[in-house]
């Protein structure tokens, strides 16, 4: 999971990209980068840390041009601490291409060999994004020769890129002197949204971003989602062309976007994230009613922030008082996306504090968006016990996470997933709670898809079914051995 944005504007784009990245900061906090195009010159700045930490006034002054792109990173391949793996990535041929990517390529081993032996391109890091920009560059190079670049050649290069790469990818690329390219994997696993506004001079300005909140927060009107397998090319003058670059696309967006990753005020694939989380609460309430003793709950409380809509609906549907006893330090990052188990564990108590009067002597039902490693959940139960909570009923708006996620969320190892190989009573014991209730898989799917017309979801971390069809047991073993979380 990362956040990406690309803008073609009628005026200087540097501050616009910066502001849009700030709206996507929840999608990654390891590193960030911005690239802009001024004529045929490319200006690039990237660094570790969050947006507000990485860029200084001198950096912004050097990022000249009217179209550009940006990235906030949450590492799923390579090393989070390696500044060389911060995006965007650049290749000088053909034309000069700068690229950002949200997702994860599942055939990176094959690509690394092909790039070395067939394309004769050098890859300097373990980043699959660097491989992707080199694949695109190689395919485009073979098409343009000495000719001029046009949309048809560019779309053919994207089609050939689809044929070579596997996994999940939302991509935005800046091509020096020519414009902005965006394309999405044929399953639409990772989100990509297109928006437009009219400049004071009456010209179309465009933005492509991971979530609609980046567009609406920047004054753009959401036009539509980039379709699975679709490519979009926007010239510096604001002319847009699009084409379907895959023969058999199907929309199967990642369920975890709606459970946790996306901001509640975003709309992706036509699904309102906030409303989907309310529906998760409705369905979870019915399951809670089936599996918990009558009268065993005094109050319902959310773990802030992403579980709040579900918790409100649980309380409303069960007719139980809704209270907030956990308070969040907003200057600590999202614990789930912090690199390293020790860092995540240390940050739980720094991030959350409990209001003792809301817990002492009460039977509390806690709603969290999900339970992944169990680190945060165990700490929360211990905190509740320490202030005199009578009983703890822990509930998750998502089903048990039992399988690795290989499409851009950092869950590479079954061994670190608390529900992997455990029954629900065993997980309950491991957490130290009195009762534990998970959302049912079918209920989660219905909560997200209700009224959307989408055919299905990518739910591999809950079901073990990998929608791309190319994820083998051997690959999963390799990921577990080589990729740290």
Question: Can you put this structure into words, describing what you see?
Answer:
The protein is 32% helix and 24% strand. The protein starts with a strand and ends with a helix. The protein has helices at residues 14-23, 51-54, 57-62, 108-117, 128-144, 151-164, 212-216, 255-261, 273-291, 308-318, 341-351, 375-386, 424-431, 441-449, 460-463, 473-482, and strands at residues 3-8, 31-38, 41-48, 67-73, 89-91, 97-105, 167-175, 179-184, 193-198, 204-209, 221-225, 230-234, 240-244, 267-268, 271-272, 299-302, 321-322, 326-328, 352-354, 363-368, 391-396, 435-438. The chain is globular and about 75 Å long.
Explain briefly what this protein structure is:
The chain contains 16 helices and 22 strands. The protein has helices spanning 14-23, 51-54, 57-62, 108-117, 128-144, 151-164, 212-216, 255-261, 273-291, 308-318, 341-351, 375-386, 424-431, 441-449, 460-463, 473-482, and strands spanning 3-8, 31-38, 41-48, 67-73, 89-91, 97-105, 167-175, 179-184, 193-198, 204-209, 221-225, 230-234, 240-244, 267-268, 271-272, 299-302, 321-322, 326-328, 352-354, 363-368, 391-396, 435-438.
């Amino acid at each position: 999971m990362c956040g990406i944005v690309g803008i073609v504007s009628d005026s200087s784009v540097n501050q616009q990209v910066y502001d849009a990245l700030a709206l996507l900061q929840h999608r990654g906090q390891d590193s960030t980068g911005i690239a802009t195009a001024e004529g045929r010159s490319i200006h690039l700045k990237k660094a570790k840390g969050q947006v507000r930490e990485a860029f200084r006034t001198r950096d912004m002054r050097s990022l000249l041009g009217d179209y550009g792109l940006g990235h906030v990173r949450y590492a799923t391949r390579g090393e989070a601490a390696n500044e060389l793996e911060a995006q965007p990535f650049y290749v000088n041929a053909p034309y000069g291409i700068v690229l950002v990517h949200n997702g994860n390529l599942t055939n990176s081993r094959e690509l690394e060999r092909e790039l070395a032996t067939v394309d004769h391109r050098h890859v300097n890091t373990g980043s699959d994004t660097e491989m992707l920009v080199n694949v695109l560059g190689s395919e485009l190079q073979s098409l343009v020769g000495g000719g001029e670049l046009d949309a048809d050649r560019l779309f053919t290069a994207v089609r050939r890129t689809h044929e070579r790469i596997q996994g999940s990818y939302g991509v935005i690329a800046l091509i020096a002197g020519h414009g902005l390219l965006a394309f999405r994997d044929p399953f639409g696993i990772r989100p990509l949204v297109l928006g437009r506004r009219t400049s004071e001079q009456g010209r179309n300005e465009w933005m492509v971003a991971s979530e609609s909140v980046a567009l609406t927060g920047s004054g753009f009107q959401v036009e539509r989602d980039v379709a699975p397998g679709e490519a979009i090319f926007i010239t510096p003058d604001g002319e847009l062309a699009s084409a379907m670059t895959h023969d058999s696309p199907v929309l199967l967006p990642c369920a975890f976007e709606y459970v946790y990753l996306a901001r509640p005020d975003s709309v992706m694939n036509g699904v309102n994230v906030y409303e989907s989380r309310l529906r998760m609460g409705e369905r979870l309430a019915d399951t809670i009613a089936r599996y918990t003793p009558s009268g065993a709950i005094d109050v319902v409380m959310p773990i802030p922030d992403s579980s709040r809509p579900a918790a409100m609906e649980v309380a409303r549907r069960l007719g139980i008082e809704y209270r907030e006893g956990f308070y969040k330090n907003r200057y600590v990052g999202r614990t789930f996306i912090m690199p390293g188990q020790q860092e995540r564990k240390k940050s739980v108590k720094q991030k959350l504090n409990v209001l003792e009067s809301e817990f002492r002597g009460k039977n509390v039902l806690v709603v969290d968006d999900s339970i992944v490693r169990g680190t945060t959940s165990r700490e929360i139960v211990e905190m509740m016990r320490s202030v005199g909570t009578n009983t703890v009923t822990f509930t998750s708006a998502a089903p048990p996470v039992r399988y690795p996620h290989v499409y851009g969320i950092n869950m590479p190892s079954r061994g670190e997933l608390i529900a992997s190989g455990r029954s629900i009573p065993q997980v309950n014991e491991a957490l130290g709670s009195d009762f534990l209730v998970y959302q049912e898989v079918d209920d989660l799917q219905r909560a997200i898809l209700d009224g959307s017309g989408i055919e299905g979801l990518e739910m591999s971390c809950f079901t073990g079914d990998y929608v791309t069809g190319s994820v083998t047991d051997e690959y999963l073993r390799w990921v577990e051995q080589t990729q740290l979380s």
